[in-house]
Structures are given as structure tokens and as C-alpha cells.
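Predict the 3D structure for this chain.
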Amino acid sequence: MANQVLVETSARHLHVTDEHLEILFGKGATLTKKKDLSQPGQFACEEKVTVVGPKSSMKMSILGPTRNASQVEISLTDARAMGITAPVRESGDLAGSGACKLIGPCGEVELTEGVIAAMRHIHATPEDAEKMGLKDKDVVSVKVDTNGRSLVFGDVVVRVSPKYALAMHIDTDESNAAGCSGVVYGEIIK
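Done. Predicted structure below.
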């Protein structure tokens, strides 16, 4: 396949600010790397918090490093179960997004906004994007061939940065709908 991209499933998780990390885990708290993720410099942490919505709560892993704004990324199924409004958005587009409470071992944080269902996206380096004829903020489709669940994902936003590694990210609802398991590749359709 010419425009092939690794398709990775991004499970529910959150990102926190330095300030919120200290409230949740205590003064001077730092994130403990559990494992590196596919995007350079990104990692899953040992630290977990309870994310509380009006109907239920879920324990979620923090991804590091810390960020400028705390953000919770869940699937639409999670949002429904928790009673949280989670608009489909690009990471970082948090204005007017869902609210929740975060509970850690040392404290709690009320997020008045910051809960989203992440828009499907492709991370690409400028070199990868150029090879594929793509540019930052392009919206493409990606065809995934799986056993009995093949489908085409539309509305996939392309994000280009020298800090990225080539990969597409979908949430667990999307992954389950396509029957993705193990290593899965998709074909970018413009």
C-alpha cells in the first residue's frame, strides 16, 4: 500500500498540569514512567486517578509529560456511562468541553472543562507528510482491512510536526468497530 499508516488504539487516559499533579499526588510529585509510547517523548505513567462523572467513575492512567492544561480523553461509550458530555475534538481544543472531578491519593481537582473524545488523527513528520502529499490540518479517510470488520474511517485530521512519529490514533470504540487487534495498518485515502 502506498500511503500506509500504523493504526494504534488509544485507550482512555488523561494529561495533567504540574499544579494538578501536586494537588492529586502531593507537593513535589513527579510522574513515574511505566513505558514509552509511540510518539517521541510521550509515556504511560504508573500514576492513576479516579475520574468522576455524574453517573459513575473510572480509574485512568496519566500520560506524560505534564501539559499546560489538564485533559481527559475518553470514548463516547465511556462518556455515556459516566454521564459526561465529551465533544469530539482535537487534543488541546478544550473550550466548552466536558467537566469532571479528578481524585488522587492526596487531593481532588474539579475540571470545569477538559473532557473530550479525541478526534481520529494521524501524527506525521514533515518528511512523512510530504511523501504522502499531506499537510497539517488536512482531513483524510483511512481504509482498514480486518477480518470481517473492514471499514473506512472518515474525518481523520492530519497533524504534522517534527516531534511526531508516523501513526494514526483511534479510540477503543473505533478500534472495536473495526475489529482491530495486534498490529494494524490502514491506507490513507485523500
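DSSP finds four helices and 14 strands in the chain.
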